[in-house]
Amino acid sequence: MEATLPKSATVNRAVPRVTPQTQPFGATAPSSTLPLLFTITGLLALFLGAGWIVVQPDILAMYHYSPAAIAATHLFVLGWLCSIVMGAMYQLVPVALETKLFSERLAQIQFAFHLIGFVGMVWAFSVWNPKSVALFGAVLAVGVALFIYNIARTLLRVPKWNVIATSVASAIGWVLLAVAAGLVVAVAKSYSESLPTLAGWVFRFDPIGAMHAHAHLGAIGFFLILIVGVSYKLIPMFTLSELQNPRRAAWSVILLNTGLAGSFVTILLRSPWKLAFTLVVIAALVLYALELRAILRARKRAAMDWGVRGFLTAVSFMFPLSIIAAVLSWPGLPVNTYTMQLENVYGFLGLVGVVSFAIIGMLYKIIPFIVWFGTYSHHIGRAQVPSLAELYSARLQIISYWIFLAGLLTTLLAMEFSNVVAVRCGTGLLAASLAVFGFNVATMLRHFVRPQLKPLPKTSVNRAIL
Amino acid sequence: MTASEQNEQTILAALRQVIDPEIGCNIVDLGLVYSYAFNAGKVTVVMTLTTPGCPMHESISWGVKNALMNIEGITEAEVDIVWDPPWNPSMMTEVGRRMTGTGNF
User: Is the Cβ–Cβ distance between A284 and A255 less than 8 Å?
Assistant: First the structure.
């Protein structure tokens, strides 16, 4: 006897089928341990970084070319953002591109290089020891090379190339350049006597321009391109919608790449053409915003959870960020305290308001998934298991969302006016928001120790009929 | 209700115990189950997932198998995941639409 449900559609039997018999449980499933290691490392770096700027608010209230500011930025970018993004990529790239990670072992080795590399770099920057920066930078670079190789080999397995694969491929290319650029500068500064040719070439560039060019390679090339590309898969998945215009999506990624290439060169050379390439990046973000709006308008799930809302709020900050970028790229911009501090505001809004807030929004999807997968995936169908949204408190999530916004706005204003006390208030609010977020993460992780399983009712069928 | 209809209800009830943890709705009301057949203690379910590459792929298909094997009288359960036709939200039942706050058709 065959029963067909009322809402079902005709099934094409010619299409290859995947059954649990042909694909045993766990064969393609990502391991929870590896992304969790990266995630916990990232969160610890985030909390440490937040505490650091509360204790030392002058890092943000002063121009950012100082050992403490550079050390704190590397803790934030490498320790928090890179750890989270790399861990999430190991988990999400295979999912988004419907393939398997090339090597989990390689990813574990990378974690060791990453941890030693970034901790050492942050220490070396804080005590301003360029030789140690170069040494630990090289350790980090080995890890990044392993990461790139692993993701590149994973991309080679992708059955159908699309805009998401293009953005991931671009991102790993840019992160390679960002790390290489940073390492070259560190080596040139440390070994100028033994490597005079390299040092001579590097010192031709203005050091602040070189630092900004290096920062844009990482911030736009790695984080922004990934946020744009991966959200073309994740936002439709979470809101029950579809990509509306693949060509528009592809152009947004192409323009981001073009704009970044031009921005890197023009920032490095302090060229007046910087504005032209900033406008190319802004055009890419306009296309991205239009596509995102179309995806959301076509969504079938009316209610949006706060993880998605947080992500979209972060994306909306790209608008003021673009305006500030255009102002800072203006060829005739006067140089004064306010325009110099606007560079701090630009960097903080980009890394905290856009990238970090977007990541925190997505972590409300990623961490529950990792925890659920590790704790409940083997019990589904055998016991009553919670949904992902039941693993944490949505109320606390909303509270931390609003405190974060208040903290961000206060910090940005305080930075612009170099007000140390107000910076401390703003970063204090941000730290409070992160503490609430941390509590919610602990609530999620508690399910590893205390799973919430309820028994299912026992039922039976009439065997005579079966 | 005939014994056959009763069995059908039992199987559907078992399948409703399997949730898509991301959406927080069971697979029957989500419209993921396309058909099922039962014969001599063996049940075969043909179903899909909300998106190809769904991270819950294996968990859900094993969950279905577990839920069916939990029914007394069923000795074998097979789950076929198909991608054609692709799932879309209009396949949800009224209950599913209410549970997920889905509209806009």
Answer: yes
